[in-house]
């Protein structure tokens, strides 16, 4: 069973990497991503313990989930004609046009520019960029006629 789960998530990671090959601007990986990754490890270590996987299998599963998690987080961002969006419930990042955006919120926290993109009520993604990229990101939204709400 562990090898089936491993194969599935490696395939998903490969698809995610391939779909993100044309990304022009990517959000940074930040502290929240690292905390999420640690949470994923805790879940899979607990899962491995209760299912009685040996330590090597549990470690393998954690490493594969790390590869998938980093692929999913890294392969989202702006394309020349749209963006790749992770959303809440998707295992594979989805490509969208700027016209698909229902709302974009902008805030700044911890010296980061934080953009919350909403495609529909089930698809929300938060992108964090260094403050130096704030103007470039806002210009990208403006050039594509996307209204940004400042909070």
Descriptive labels:
single chain; 151 residues; three-stranded antiparallel beta sheet; elongated
Descriptive account of the structure:
- The chain is an alpha+beta fold and 151 residues long.
- It is 46% helix and 25% strand.
- The chain has 4 helices and 7 strands; from the N terminus they run H-H-H-E-E-E-E-E-E-H-E.
- The strands form 2 sheets. The protein has a 4-stranded mixed sheet with strand order 6-5-4-7, with helices on one face. It has a 3-stranded antiparallel sheet with strand order 1-2-3, with no helix packed on it.
- A hairpin with an 8-residue loop joins strand 2 (82-85) and strand 3 (94-96).
- Helix 1 (2-19) runs parallel beside helix 3 (55-74).
- The model has no long low-confidence stretch (mean pLDDT 85).
Task: Please give the structural blueprint.
Elements: H1 2-19, H2 31-51, H3 55-74, E1 77-79, E2 82-85, E3 94-96, E4 103-109, E5 112-120, E6 123-130, H4 134-143, E7 148-150
Parallel strand pairs: 4-7
Antiparallel strand pairs: 1-2, 2-3, 4-5, 5-6
Helix pairs in contact: 1-3, 2-3
């Amino acid at each position: 069973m562990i090898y089936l789960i491993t194969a599935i998530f490696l395939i998903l990671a490969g698809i995610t990497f391939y779909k993100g090959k044309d990304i022009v601007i990517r959000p940074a990986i930040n502290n929240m991503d690292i905390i999420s990754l640690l949470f994923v490890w805790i879940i899979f270590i607990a899962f491995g313990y209760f299912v009685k996987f040996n330590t090597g299998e549990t470690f393998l599963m954690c490493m594969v989930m790390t590869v998938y998690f980093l692929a999913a987080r890294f392969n989202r961002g702006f394309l020349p004609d749209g963006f790749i969006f992770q959303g809440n419930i998707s295992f594979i990042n989805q490509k969208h046009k700027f016209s698909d955006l229902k709302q974009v919120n902008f805030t700044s926290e911890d010296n980061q520019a934080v953009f919350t993109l909403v495609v529909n009520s089930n698809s929300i993604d938060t992108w964090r960029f260094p403050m130096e990229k704030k103007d470039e990101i806002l210009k990208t939204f403006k050039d594509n006629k996307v209204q940004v709400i400042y909070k």
